[in-house]
């Protein structure tokens, strides 16, 4: 094959790669849509009833739900970055970070939730066992951190079912909640969540309070424990040498942001959900700020540290109230 | 259709998408232009007469004009990001942030301006009613946050008229000012603003003081209340997972920047315009710095907090002076 | 013309645009080069003799050379961003920032250097006159901030000559130094600088001390006053909404960086060169840190604030020493 | 050749360039892989036995291994950025920064390791001699900072052998360790490292403690001294004007990160590896934070400052223990 032919193929592969990574421009542009189209797109999945209880268990003012998405190598695999050096960054998650996090949670006597891609549960069965043995929750987090919005409905359903079964086998208990990988959402993600009768989802961002999810305008009975990029360690600390993603906020400044978020959550007597990743927050210079954050939270009265499933159950009590 | 054909199509779609997002290289490059071309491009829209009054109403030294662009889901829709999770970030604007902002403005007894895309006014009529009921201003902000520079003159005019009518119906009062979406500006934006007899624009950056806009070298009578990326919450706090846009300045550092801007504005006895977005500034860790900023401003004598229309009217008094 | 044809054209234009903005991959890759090729590329322009004098005029320890590149609209024009809103950001440079900077330099009784694209000198003749009237230097900075590395040798020479003449007419005095736009450097930039018998260049980064430039291994007699991105306001404060360039370091942190650079320069008894841009540093929240920086520098004994031409003349005295 | 033909060629070259810079999407996507494929990719190179000794030489608690990758112009050459201004940034590394770093290490009486691309060793033989004369280590760092993952196995082997010979000639001693350029890793990098009988590698990230590398599941006897982007100056201070890479964390904040990393390393009685680059850390405003960091480390009891080869030898003592 000559060089020119290689170039042509390279050009098309490169464009196809870029295309696969980028959300597509709608056709026609949104300013040309009629009102039905706007309403149907915006109304697909919406926030319904506020599910904040009058008070949280133990008569506490605020629920503090810490979570760790144990991605390890799966994001690299999904993106096709197969370098052993790149993959070793994920290996760090189970080899070093999980132990450090479990020790910290033990020290503070806190239970938390770990969302685990099924592939990680199979590659690192000991991590899952340690997590469960300490009384923490294992929740769903995709098969291999796939982008659900690039799948057909049936592919997404198959992967979710396979993930469910794999997690149940690894953890010895059925998962009751999901956090979608990268918080991606296809038009049928919520439909499949209902089919699987999951108690809660933790991937949407319409509120900080727990709420009931509406699907195509109708109540689903699914509890949403909302997330936010602000309350995630990745936007501040992520590093990808092939893009320009860099750690760009100092740990002490991230601590300040999270402390402010918590202080208002407490004042508002509501919910505080924090998303972290062992291979990101588990590093020496970052675990110390998580320690400081928890110490700050524990110094205030009225805080209920709880697993996502416990929070969802407490919130679900509001579903049946008028 | 075979895979190779799909690749070819993907390549062209990808390139077309990139093209639609990027300002075009002029042909020929600018160093080859003759002087007339340079002058005509630079001279299209310029800053004219400084409209700072001797003193602001109430004999105050500085006018402080706070504004909130209530974009909600429109930027996502415009960019074709239709994921329910992505859209839920916009839903947060009206569901959570508007209430928090209105309470803060109430607490400080301040009136402000809200620039609202017409689609948001229709999707969230209650937000518009609450804003108006509290005595705040509703200003124009496009139909669906479209890029005016990608439209023909007639398309831009049609959307501006439709937006005007929609806002008037939702707010019960006619808007008198505009902030263009993303501060984009086509060669005929100012022409249409004059046709619509708007009092003011707030999208240009040639000064911090209010000024009269010149169009093709001639005074327009339109008051400019200039903006700046420095005085906008988005460049510091914006997050787009498909690009590398991240929140990269800590809230306390943003507070310091805005406080410095205000202090010099007060010293110079001029104007302070701050642009924010409910779904960005309305989060717990950020609303507290807006609270601190307003408290700082109120601690200084000589500050007139006012809506953009009030500031524009005070500045317009200078139009007729020699 | 049908839509498919438009897509094809768009694809090629987009790729060509990307190509024109990106340095080209050498062919073959560098690891395949022979030693002669490596040496000839690296050896094209090099740092020669250290020109730091025993002491600076007035028996001072350190020379502090502040400079302002008055780009205004030229970078936007060069990049084909012709939006009136974008251009108004450049207009701010002469309308607001130059006055603020001149007042600050006056207050501190300091002379500085302004590097001015010739197009700016023609669009804003009053800025040039004010700068000259205050005793500051006007230096060359390209015709319209063009990328010299995208020009042929003759095109680059023609633009440099035209810029020289235009600046001389605007300033009433011949420029003696150059800072290339964006610090770009073609293989023949230094050759043309010598032809034009300029005293100094301020665009290279091999040292912090002044040095004699070597061209193809031979001394040129041209004094280099080296620059660095660390000592430039743009990398910290730049904003480009079409890329992900954002202001991402707080002004007080930039002040700390520049203060540290100065403190070591003073300790080393050498040179401190700071590059700024009126439309960037001239904003309210930034001019105050420049004020603080100058105050800090003036609080230390042994600092000679000087124009680039004065520093270059003092350094040139070392050219003839053995 | 007409313009249209140029455009077509430009389009393909541009795409090919992008392709050569980006890791490729695997085909098919990872969620379609069977379990063998996942295991074989993840299992290629893994972390084996923890090699932390009971105590470090001198009965110290923690080993502190500082390293400097002397890249100078090689990254620019590899990426095809041949502008004399760009290259002068690399020249700074040997002309200015190496001397400043050697003086700092002398002041603190510390030995460190310098990883040197062979091309740099030939371009700057004096730098190598100075480094060796002061008792520091010279380690391998590629031929011209090439991307090993873009080479065939034989090309990678040839360049590694040529680099080894060149370094030995320049330093007068054989290198015993390697840090791969950019920490890239091909599937056969570890195979070649074993063939060359190197004592250690310092390019992987599965732990902070020293460990034995496993290759395809089997112990290699190669000691890994793991690195991390957190412990590298480039992610915080790097600058590339053609991308959006910018210095975006203030030096004092970087100092705080590294100090936190060290404090936990000391507490855990383990290893602290810091990767720096002379042309990055050697600048005035950054060398002062390295000085502060070392002073902080020296203020704590139980710190063994050592070269990478010394640390690797101490760790290798654990290889033979059960």
Overview features:
TIM Barrel; 13 helices; 15% strand; homotetramer; alpha/beta; 322 residues
Query: Which of globular, elongated, flat, extended, rod-shaped describes the shape of chain A?
Result: globular
Largest sheet of chain A, described in full?
5 strands, mixed
Structural class of chain A: alpha/beta
Radius of gyration of chain A: 21 Å
List segments of chain A where confidence is low: pLDDT < 50 over at least 5 consecutive residues: 1-10, 12-24
What count of domains describes the coordinates of chain A? Answer: 1
Order of helices and strands of chain A: HHEEHHEHHEHEHEEEHHEHHEH
Walk me through the topology.
The structure is a homotetramer of 322-residue chains.
Chain A: H1 3-21, H2 35-42, E1 45-50, E2 62-69, H3 74-79, H4 84-108, E3 113-116, H5 118-123, H6 125-133, E4 137-140, H7 153-171, E5 177-178, H8 189-195, E6 200-201, E7 211-215, E8 218-224, H9 234-237, H10 251-267, E9 271-276, H11 278-281, H12 284-298, E10 303-305, H13 308-316
């Amino acid at each position: 094959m000559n060089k020119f032919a290689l170039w042509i193929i390279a050009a098309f592969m490169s464009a196809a790669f870029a295309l696969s990574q980028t959300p597509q421009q709608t056709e026609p542009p949104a300013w040309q849509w009629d009102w039905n189209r706007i309403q149907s797109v915006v109304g697909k999945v919406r926030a319904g009833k506020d599910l904040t209880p009058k008070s949280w268990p133990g008569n506490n003012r605020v629920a503090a739900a810490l979570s760790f998405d144990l991605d390890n190598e799966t994001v690299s695999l999904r993106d096709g970055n197969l370098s052993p050096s790149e993959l070793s960054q994920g290996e760090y998650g189970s080899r070093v970070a999980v132990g450090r996090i479990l020790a910290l949670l033990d020290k503070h006597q806190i239970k938390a939730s770990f969302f685990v891609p099924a592939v990680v549960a199979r590659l690192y069965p000991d991590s899952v066992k340690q997590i469960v043995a300490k009384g923490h929750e294992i929740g769903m987090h995709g098969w291999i951190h796939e982008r659900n919005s690039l799948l057909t409905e049936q592919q997404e359903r198959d992967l979710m079912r396979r993930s469910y079964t794999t997690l149940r086998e690894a953890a010895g208990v059925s998962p009751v909640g999901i956090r979608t990988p990268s918080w991606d959402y296809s038009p049928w993600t919520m439909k499949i969540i209902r089919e699987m009768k999951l108690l809660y989802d933790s991937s949407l961002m319409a509120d900080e309070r727990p709420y009931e999810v509406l699907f195509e305008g109708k109540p689903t009975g699914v509890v949403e424990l909302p997330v936010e990029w602000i309350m995630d360690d990745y936007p501040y600390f992520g590093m990808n040498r092939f893009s320009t993603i860099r750690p760009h906020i100092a740990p002490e400044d991230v601590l300040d942001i999270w402390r402010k978020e918590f202080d208002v959550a407490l004042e508002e007597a509501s919910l505080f959900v924090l998303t972290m990743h062992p291979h990101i927050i588990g590093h020496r210079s970052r675990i110390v700020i998580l320690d400081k954050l928890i110490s700050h939270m524990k110094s205030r009265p009225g805080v209920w540290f709880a697993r996502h499933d416990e929070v969802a159950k407490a919130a679900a009590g509001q579903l049946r109230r008028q």
